[in-house]
Prior knowledge:
By secondary structure, this protein is α+β, with helices and mostly antiparallel strands. It is built from 6 helices and 6 strands. It has helices at 2-22, 67-76, 84-90, 95-99, 120-137, 176-206, and strands at residues 24-36, 47-54, 58-66, 105-116, 150-156, 163-175. Strand 4 (105-116), helix 5 and strand 5 form a beta-alpha-beta unit.
Amino acid sequence: MILVFILLGILILILLLLSLILFSTLKIQIKDLQTANFPLKEKLQYEINISLYLFNHVKWLSISLNKAKIKKAIQKIPLQKIDVKKIEQDFKLQDITVLKKLKINLSNFYLEADLGLESPISTAFIIALISSFISIILPHLTKEIKENQYKYTIQPIYQNKNLYKIRLNCIIELKMVHIINVIYILIKKGKSDENERTTSNRKSYGYSYE
């Protein structure tokens, strides 16, 4: 009888946890993330806050990562074991359409980017291209564009060198139910592709002769 109550309690806890996750919104806040391929006078201590909000209002889980923690975490990742070629083979262009189902929302966006290439013409072209891309994609990632919440400046560096300096502040919001849905679709698609490859191999062996 006690075992039944224990199992029931575990089941209730699992259901509560699943409910919390399904009805939660993931918020990723990036503060003063700055990177460049040349020495900077100002050294910013960037921070990334990852939080889960129940019904988009009640925070019930939060993780803060600063520059030191992120660097330490990256060092622990076994990069030599990551099969880049396999990732390239598995990821296809149509997967981008699946990612639209994430329904990403930017509730805050501030970007400063200084870019330069060896050719002034190439620099002018890449600046215009990136600015146009951001202006096109930004309305699709925001519910409502409000003043002082969405700003970006893309400026050229004319020094006949490949240079970049980027500073980013933003808040990214995703509903957990959409994340789980996309993960399920990608896993299902991966299994389907694997079955197709297996079937294809069987057919090729079936028509071979010794």
